[in-house]
Amino acid sequence: MIGKLNHVAIIVPDLEKATALYRDTLGAKVLPPHALPEHGVTAVFVELGNTRVELLEPLGAESPVRGFLSRNPDGGMHHVCYEVADIKAARDRLRASGARVLGDGEPRIGAHGKPVLFLHPKDFCGTLIELEEV
Ligand code: CO
């Protein structure tokens, strides 16, 4: 059911420093930062060819990732995103197997303008999973 790894999201306390680390130290191709106020983050995409890393810095006082950063002041891996062909079919199948879909279970438009859902980390090896319909 799941397809490619679309991205790995890493929350960072300082986007400029994190960008320099990926661009200069790791030698990766890094795109310019863009603000996503509706998601409460500023994002920098690191293009790896087969997938991408998203460096996310909280944007605004109400950012949903501020809590994560207060528990992990150095930053850390926040979620992995897998691609699915039909997100509602994926949701129904997961629910039928007992997995918890976060929120009201209705797909929302994610950072790439496509429908996404998140799955409870306790049901998936302690890892928050995002599903994105592509
Ligand atoms: Co994501």
Features:
single chain, 134 residues, alpha+beta, 2,3-Dihydroxybiphenyl 1,2-Dioxygenase, domain 1, 9-stranded mixed sheet, 3 helices, 20% helix, binds cobalt (II) ion
Please, could you describe this protein's structure?
The structure is a single chain. With 134 residues, the protein is of the alpha+beta class. It has one domain (5-133): 2,3-Dihydroxybiphenyl 1,2-Dioxygenase, domain 1 (Roll). Helices cover 20% and strands 35% of the residues. The chain contains three helices and nine strands, in the order E-H-E-E-E-E-H-E-H-E-E-E. Strands 1, 2, 3, 4, 5, 6, 7, 8 and 9 form a nine-stranded mixed beta sheet that branches. A hairpin with a 5-residue loop joins strand 7 (108-109) and strand 8 (115-119). The longest helix is centred in the first third of the chain and has 11 residues, at 15-25. It starts with a strand and ends with a strand. The model has no long low-confidence stretch (mean pLDDT 96). Residues 7, 9, 54, 79, 81, 111, 130 line the site of cobalt (II) ion (CO).
